[in-house]
Amino acid sequence: MNVSEYMSKLGQQARDASRVLANCETAQKNNALVAMADAINQGRAVLKQANQQDLDAGALKGLSPAMLDRLELTDARIDTMVEGLHQVAGLSDPIGGITDMDYRPSGIQIGKMRVPLGVIGIIYESRPNVTIEAASLCLKSGNAVILRGGSEAIHSNTALAQCISAGLEKAGLPATSVQVVEITDRDAVHQLITMPEFVDVIVPRGGKGLIERISADARVPVIKHLDGNCHVYVDAEADIAKAQRIAFNAKTRRYGVCNAMESLLVHESVAKAFLPEIARMFAEKGVELRGCELTQDLIDCETATEEDWYLEYVAPILAIKVVASFDEAVAHINKYGSHHTDAIVTENFTTARKFLRAADSSSVMVNASTAFADGFEYGLGAEIGISTDKIHARGPVGLIGLTSQKYVVFGDGHIRES
Amino acid sequence: MNVSEYMSKLGQQARDASRVLANCETAQKNNALVAMADAINQGRAVLKQANQQDLDAGALKGLSPAMLDRLELTDARIDTMVEGLHQVAGLSDPIGGITDMDYRPSGIQIGKMRVPLGVIGIIYESRPNVTIEAASLCLKSGNAVILRGGSEAIHSNTALAQCISAGLEKAGLPATSVQVVEITDRDAVHQLITMPEFVDVIVPRGGKGLIERISADARVPVIKHLDGNCHVYVDAEADIAKAQRIAFNAKTRRYGVCNAMESLLVHESVAKAFLPEIARMFAEKGVELRGCELTQDLIDCETATEEDWYLEYVAPILAIKVVASFDEAVAHINKYGSHHTDAIVTENFTTARKFLRAADSSSVMVNASTAFADGFEYGLGAEIGISTDKIHARGPVGLIGLTSQKYVVFGDGHIRES
């Protein structure tokens, strides 16, 4: 069987399984999730053995220590997987819920029912825990899923797939509800993203390069997350203490995350009151500052170039710009930002209200740290990713983002007269 | 300026205009819509002159009478445009509404704000009224739009564009909020669907061939409507009189619409009671029937081939199949149907409930005619099209389908502790 035949087979099996999942009861899905957790818990030895194969191959291949670390299945990480499966089992089931059953003048009653998307393809890098996370969220939302993890994790993922199948079968669900692509051929990804007859949506998780390539080649909709170039704008009427607390948290809570602040905008009228102290705080924490000319007049820092405003550093580096007005701040955010998460710090009601409308970002915040942009913090219960698109899902994507709605119409023999 | 430069210019202008539209007040949009209506009403002579140019060129080119009819701007059609603009002005504005502002354990308050998609590209055939319909819906939903109508309507569309610009300017909105592509070069379509930096979504309106080509080549999400192969399934426990009324209406109300029934499925236990009378009704109306073997045992009709089950006739033809079970009916609908609109006729509560889940269609109906699948009948106030996709919008697409939601987060200096 060649790659194309293999992927079509997975696709057809996923499509068939999706019909069963769309109609199954909540308890059955939850039973499967708990049974998967049990299989993983009891299969630790086998999982770690398979993982060791990947680690050995990775070391031989010269993977970086950071990559090897992400690849490793420690006991603590296995615990987290088991716990995660129980948590997803505990989430409420979005599927089948009917809302807004209103009567129309014609006499029909119409509303919307939440339904699964069908088959989801997930493409991700060599982190085995994503296998379980993605599988559990897709299953809970009633979708079949095809998982294509990084080739460096192939043995770990194949072993996890066996735990998943065991759990599905125990609950009486098709083992093909969750399928791991068990060939490492690169063409498998191309096949996966170009079979709209079998796959309804692709969710890529990984670096920007990977996601851009997938988006360019896909023949299937992609829920994607590119950059997280987030801003905090300190307004003329900001409470300076709040602004310092928020800016410091938004930058330093974690550097490698997409909701970290990468550029700080400061209204000129408060720059003098705000910048020296925050610069001291950042210096103490080891954050490198790159400022515009006006910033450099007030604090000691590197020069920010035009390119800096576009950058997602994912590092202890921050660009700072002093702006002359609210409008300049908003224009800067909409031009250089990535439409991910942007915050204003202000005490002015009217300015806050204007910012909410004007900032074209998936999350717009007033007097809160960008670090809150996260599915769990937002109460979604889970997160498959953060979408920087506007179509279908925007911002943190939880179970609802993996669903659609269909119309349901009730009548009593009603026909349309005209 | 070549085609690519011309389209990029339109794209950049649309993007810039979209920033203004996203922030403007409802009254301003409504004023523009009413001013457009006035401009059209007062510009009848000019519009009809431009339309005559298109009609003359079309006649010379040998367009069919049906195409020439669709192209013609009669006084009645101009009245309908004027009325349509007033109606859209009267719809409530979806933009800016904030819902579900809930507090989270961290202390932040989070909800969702409805926002425009940004820039919409509409590609349609030679029906000038679509120019006004699409322009008004995009404007009301806060989106800038680039309209690419059929080349046969170029003079009519250019004249309408002037009325639109006049209306926008009178209301103080950018004239570039609505732009008509004023070159007929075919490459303009390709450009329009491959500039994600300027266009957020494409809505094609026209034949299946056009929509398939656009979907295949687009680098931008497409809200599309392919087939409308709708079914009515008459269950074992159907009220026969209701079933006859519904099936007759679903087929004969209009033949050329996407919500017309194309296949009729009948449970074997009621086939004898149901089929002869409905066959008589259809015969009287001149509808050609094509049946499976069991159908042919009961009524006089042509033979339905495997291919018939896939067909959207858009004509007075109907395929009829007798099925042995509910499951066979559902499997048939999900296999041969187009996931548009499918109805069951049954008095059984449990069967109805099962059908709602199992039929994978954008509209699922119980005891109502498929003819109701329509944005106006559903109370959307307007309809830009019907989506047979699951991503973003499914079923009739009104103003809401042209919008997205962003998260809004309020704090009081809140930071994320862990």
UniProtKB/TrEMBL annotation, chains A, B:
One of its GO terms (molecular function) is glutamate-5-semialdehyde dehydrogenase activity. It is an enzyme of class 1 (oxidoreductase). Pfam families: Aldedh. Pathway: Amino-acid biosynthesis; L-proline biosynthesis; L-glutamate 5-semialdehyde from L-glutamate: step 2/2. Its main location: cytoplasm. It comes from the Bacteria. Residues 12-281, 312-373 form the Aldehyde dehydrogenase domain. HAMAP family: ProA. Catalyzes the NADPH-dependent reduction of L-glutamate 5-phosphate into L-glutamate 5-semialdehyde and phosphate. The product spontaneously undergoes cyclization to form 1-pyrroline-5-carboxylate. Belongs to the gamma-glutamyl phosphate reductase family. This is Gamma-glutamyl phosphate reductase.
